[in-house]
Amino acid sequence: MIRRGFILLTFCTALLGCAVASAQERRPIAWDGLGQDPNKSSHRPHVAKRRATNPAPAAADPNQERERVLGTLRPYSDAWWAVHDEIEAENDKQLGTKLVICPRCVQSPQQSEDATGSVR
Predict the structure, then answer these.
(1) Which residues contact 116 (CB under 8 A, 6 or more apart)?
(2) Does the pLDDT of residue 52 top 70, yes or no?
(3) What is the pLDDT of residues 59-107, one digit of tens each?
(4) How far apart are alpha carbons 64 and 71 in whole angstroms?
(5) In angstroms, what CA-CA distances link 74 with 57, 70, 71, 87, 88?
């Protein structure tokens, strides 16, 4: 009986440690609109709002001119596909600059190609 009590006490202590750690981060909490707003309570320190940076102007978009040209071409012609592929390549390039992959999630080059199992 004492053994089970000790195991239960250890388990509860571990869970309490997880709950306290996340509460100390002081990040804004999602609020469903019911009750008091947890982000406005007096015991929370003031959190500065982040301002979104202005996106690049539309004129800087290299695909804008390509899309205009694409509209003037006969659909699915060779020229249409060439412009379409340029647009897709530019979109992939822009996505590649924004995409961040965790280094642990990518397979390291030292592992052989014949290895099986998880990538992580």
Answers:
(1) none
(2) no
(3) 578 899 999 999 999 999 999 999 999 999 999 998 888 887 777 766 6
(4) 11
(5) 29, 8, 8, 16, 18
Distance CA(26)–CA(31), nearest Å, equals 14
- CA-CA-CA-CA torsion sign (112, 110, 101, 99): negative
Q: What residue ranges in the chain does DSSP mark as E strands?
A: none
User: What pTM value is reported for the model?
Assistant: 0.39
Angle formed at CA 80 by CA 77 and CA 83, multiple of 5 degrees: 155
Tokens, residue 58: 């539309």
Q: How many CB atoms lie within 10 A of CB 83?
A: 20
Amino acid in the structure at residue 61: D
**Residue 55: predicted pLDDT:** 57
Which tokens is 41 given?
């309570």
Determine contact, residues 39/31, Cβ cutoff 8 Å: yes
Residue 20 in tokens: 């306290």
